[in-house]
Records
---
Amino acid sequence: MRITGVIQAGGRSTRMGGEPKALLELGGKRIVERVVDALGAVLADLLVVTNTPERYAFLGVPMVADRYPDGGALGGIFTGLDAARGDAAFTVACDMPFLSPDVMRLVLARAGEADVVIPRVDGQYETMHALYTKACLPAMETRLRAGQLKIVGFFPDVRVLEIDAVAVARHRAPQVAFMNVNTPDELARARALAEQVE
């Protein structure tokens, strides 16, 4: 199965005062560069979903505009999956500084067993650290057109394989591996953590 790594960079960063959180520096690199490095360690084919390509041109990664700009994260996932050259997209957010290649491999190793392969921690799906196959596209689009933007809303229509927190924790603490940076407080916490995680 050919898998494209998709980075979602369509958010408005409102909780960060409008400053693009992906471009903030953490541990000597911009957060999005850390994401590209981690994702690029496991997948050769990468793609960025963004409506501000000028911000991310320096990455040298192909970009695609969000087809459903008012469709929230579901619209971004749909766009990346539809544009993916492979059979599936492994989707992550642009503001996840501590992505673990080993945790990604844990998800990718189960590709082909379901339409969605996704970690679940404390009852919550990690929708921005998941593999989605092209079989998900019709169910996603139906919900986008109906304005039903909850990502897990289409899950009943597809085959979902969950990866539990115990399996993730063998490689990295889930709260670190799936951490994202939305607020100045979270950025400060991430900067302190960066010295320990490296």
Note: The chain has a mean pLDDT of 92.
---
Amino acid sequence: MPQQSSHVSHILPSGTILQDNYIIDALLGEGGFGITYSGTCKSSGQPIAIKEYFPAGLVTREYTKGNPLVSHFEGSLEVSFQKGLKRFLNEA
């Protein structure tokens, strides 16, 4: 498993494989609604950008058996999470 930096645990580490086909190479940046990584498509070898919906203050990342999981908060923050997710998906 790739090493996880202790001071930026919410950032997926380089080498993380998503959906068995996308490899995270490096962090490009992050903002209030998400994190952007450079990556590579395993099947084609093409460089790609990966955008992860990760709204600051509304989610946390946990590692279970080496797998990064995102949890979001319930209650009134759920409304903010869902509104932001809708905007994020519309942008995509």
Note: The helical segments are 76-91.
---
Amino acid sequence: MALPIKKEKLNQAFFLLSIIIIIILAVLLFQKRFRLYFKKAPFSLKLIRIVGSADNLKGPAGVAFGRRNNIYVVDSGNSRIVKFNIKGGYIRQWGIEGKATGEFMVPLFAAAYGNPERIYIVDSGNSRIQVFKPDGNFVSEFGISKNPKRMLLQPTFVGFAYDKIYAANSGSDDIMIYLKNGQFYERKGSSSIQEGSAAVNAPAQNGANGGSPQNSAGNAGKSSNNGASGGNAAGGSAAGSQTSAPAPAVSPVELKKPVSIAFSKKYIYISDYKLSKILVYNRQFDYIGSIGTPGQAGYQLYHPVGIVYKNGYLYVANYGRSLLTVFKLDNGYNVIKTYNFGTPGTGRDNFNHESNISISLNGEYLAVADTNNNRILIYRIFGAK
């Protein structure tokens, strides 16, 4: 009787061992597939939709994502705001040319902010910022003052960070800061900006330090003479990596034409149209350094306008070159890779002096105001989370 019992125990041991091996193999296989499934995709942009082509847009200069991915378009040439859903469906519009509340003179920028949501419109020609409900009903305005030190002059941007409202006061070449209720708080011009403690580094041009791998979602097109590539997706060419330690303090650069601002947790980025650079400051507005170099080749900037920061990437509407240039940043200021997307032109995959850009709250979509093509381009963002 001992042999059958021993054999039965041996069979049970082999069975248990087989089950354990199967479980281990299954776990290993699952982990491999899990890693492959969630492996970070290369950074790229894919054009998914064109908005406004049938809505008689005229020189749209601004675009802003609101809740539910609704899109607010600043239709500058028609002095109105047009609201679309993410699929490009028309919802409503408001505004006419004029100086009264709810009217506009050369509106340039929009931002959706707050709970309940409010739509802030930079009414540049009237040197003010108007605030509306999402249905277009007027709420308030600010920026007009008899005190020239507190007065907006041809503003081009409004944004929100660190419990304050920031406006690019392009007509006076400075930055105006307001409390959340629109009350004046502080003015930051070149004379009030101090030195920081680190210099910002632009990447090597034209793919130095590692070549220029192509990054695209879909089929990338042929490279153009300026180093960008277009295609069914916004094909992007990337510069090689560059990292460096913080450099000694640098003297502040005088603001020449600040047109847009972006924010990270630690830094403020200002797009300066005349300098063709992105200037970087800490939250105390100490000057840290700059990103990008002026020029019209490779990954250089030429009259940049709209900028947005999201998940370690700084997106720049490279207006003068009709390109979208994206900087991947380390520690908020060191450039480790640079991409160009799009090519100049009037076709589906081209830009014609794009002015401002916006990223959806979930970080999945990028909207570009393709100003001289009279349309809004919507892209899906890959690999930036």
Note: The first strand starts at residue 44 and ends at 51.
---
Amino acid sequence: MKRKIAILGSTGSIGKNLLKILEKEKSNFEILLLTANKNYKVLFNQINKYNVKNIIITDKLSYKILVKKLKNKNVNIYNDYSSFNLIFKKKIDYVMSSISGIDGLIPTIRIIKYTKKIAIANKETIICSWNIIKNELKKNKTIFIPVDSEHFSLWYAIQNLPSNKIERIYLTASGGPFLNFNKKKLKKINISQALKHPNWKMGKKISIDSSTLMNKVFEVIEAKHIFELPYKKISILTHPSSYVHALVKFSNGLIKIIAHDTTMKIPIFNTIFTNDKKKIDTKEIDIIKLNTLNLRKVDIEHFPSIKILKKMPEKISLYESVIISANDRLVNLFLEKKIKYNQIVSIMLKLINYKVFLKYKKLTPKKIEDIISVKNHVGYEITKLLKL
């Protein structure tokens, strides 16, 4: 029997990589649902190539265009995520959640009850609503696997191990395009420079986050939530080649180093073929990279975004939603050429000390609407601050 799957965000890099993996397994899988925001052209090609019968495209104009293009095909097209109950009549086998940013929050939480296993590549969703996700996973007996290369590596290394057996974990960061950049020149960084990641080909948002190291701030928070560790047990090391993705030092003195090629195909492959005797073609171990790991502590003056971690409360709170929402808005403003590159972090560090936001440290997200409310509040304060 074919395994039934759904991909939230199929036109992004994670979705595309998953579909490439599934090309060799067409006889074993049926893709029940693909989703996108605006990229109807790529989505249209995916529909035809993989014979998909259910589509969600959230942008209204793109939805209208796709309806016309598919008028003679037997495809159900929806414009929002309230249609899951119409698509899934019983639990499917696997969902990949890879919608970028806080837009992935609602569909990720809603789809958990419809699947036996969910792989989540959306760090914003995990950071803002982990307690809600965790409750949904438990209630619906749904298996969860993180997709980020760092968190997948940690998950692989410490599955079901109690936190008292772990002395410290280390997440690695390439340092992005500005690891060895003159700090004084950061004011003049343009968009094309910030998007030029040395190792990974990613979307615009995550590329900017990688250049500021905000992605590592998020990954530390994400790791704390997923693996139930205090912040004092989590560190960041810069590692320019991106060959090692995580390190774990155990309380028994042993150390695990998890390394793999700089491709997301490896963690994606392992989320869908968790217990299968399937093999993925990979390169030989790179001895040169292993001999020149160049692991270093992060220079906080060069990457001031790391200072944010000192502000984070140990308990899950709505303050995480402040950080995510502010960064989302500021990165978009940079991409729209409304602020300078160095202002992304400088404005962020100013905002998170506002009294109106500090109160969120004591509030726990109980429902999706709580997080959306914080997002709107942050957007309002940024607009007011910058007089947009």
Note: Residues 313-388 form a domain with the Rna Polymerase Sigma Factor; Chain: A fold (CATH 1.10.1740.10).
